[in-house]
Amino acid sequence: TGRLQGRIAIVTGAASGIGKAAATLFRAEGATVVAADVTPGEDIVIADAGREEDVMRLVNSAATTHGGLDIFFANAGISGGLASIFEQTPQDWQEILRVNLIGPFLAIKHAAPVMKARGKGSIVCTASVAGLRAGAGGPAYSASKAGVISLVEIAATQLAGANIRVNAICPGLIETGMTKGIYDNARAAGKEDMIGHLNPLKRGGEPDEIARAALFLASDDSSYVNGHALVVDGGLSCS
Ligand code: NAD
Question: Using CA positions, which residue lies closest to atom 33 of ligand 1?
Fold first, then answer.
């Protein structure tokens, strides 16, 4: 039997990249997965992770259709590019914070009561190494991801009494829809090896390598891990 046998999970941002890999892996490990995204796709429920009504609808559908909720992987995110502070507008900030930070807040707020009824739960939020260290993302993106790490620490302490663990993952550079431009430009310039140049492992990461970290945090394998930001970056942030 799989490590998520009988579990019910919601994964946001599941039409592409890390979320898609996680939905596939969670299913392979025995979970029933409600895969949500704003972009249509196979087995996708259309829902905006930064909109409270949509998050409530996802949680309600897990509870009523599948009988409960054990895992929420709040993974949906947008990058907003690498524009400087002087190029970004308050509207850019509002949209990036809405999806990347208010999204995980809504996931925690609405998943916790349903998980509480089941006696336990695991919430995993995708942050980024950009939330730990300047230079890996644009200003609003980095601030939103630092916010996710802080939110996870607060939520972990507030929900521990209900036996709900809350953790974050901090991926390094992973080849997905979000980073397609970086990879395409490097390949077009014949400089694909530049992607791995700064990384101790000399390569970028694959979505499945983040999905496996999400599986660890979602499953009972991490039963004593709580309020942690797990860096999965090949050693990039040490170099
Ligand atoms: P991706 O673009 O391939 O996938 C993100 C998915 O989220 C897309 O399918 C998109 O439609 C969806 N999405 C965007 N806004 C949404 C919303 N409001 N509601 C629901 N879905 C929404 O990118 P990815 O790299 O797989 O990104 C997943 C997460 O990983 C993001 O939070 C991102 O910030 C984070 N991350 C990515 C990297 C990387 O190098 N790719 C590094 C660190 C962190």
Answer: 77
CA of 67 to the centre of ligand 1 (A): 28
Q: Which residue has the higher pLDDT, 237 or 70?
A: 70
CA distance linking residue 206 with residue 183, whole number of Å: 12
Place of tokens 């040490």: 238
Q: Is the Cβ–Cβ distance between 55 and 49 less than 8 Å?
A: yes
Q: Is the ipTM of this complex over 0.85?
A: yes
User: What pLDDT, on the 0 to 100 scale, is given for residue 149?
Assistant: 98
**Residue 192: φ, ψ to 5°:** -60, -30
Map tokens 């260290």 to a residue: 133
pLDDT single digits (tens) 138-185: 999 999 999 999 999 999 999 999 999 999 999 999 999 999 988 998
| Spatial separation of the C-alpha atoms in residues 52 and 169, rounded to whole Å | 23
Which of 71-75, 152-156, 193-197, 219-223 bottoms out in mean pLDDT, i.e. has the lowest?
Answer: 193-197
Best residue for ligand 1 mutational test, from 124, 133, 178 (most atoms within 8 Å of Cβ):
178
Distance of alpha carbon 128 from alpha carbon 198, whole angstroms: 17
Q: Which residues are catalytic?
A: 141
Q: Which domains does the chain have, with CATH numbers?
A: 8-176+206-233 (3.40.50.720)
172: DSSP letter = -
Which is the closest atom of ligand 1 to the Cα of 76?
Answer: 7
Q: Which amino acid is at 196?
A: G
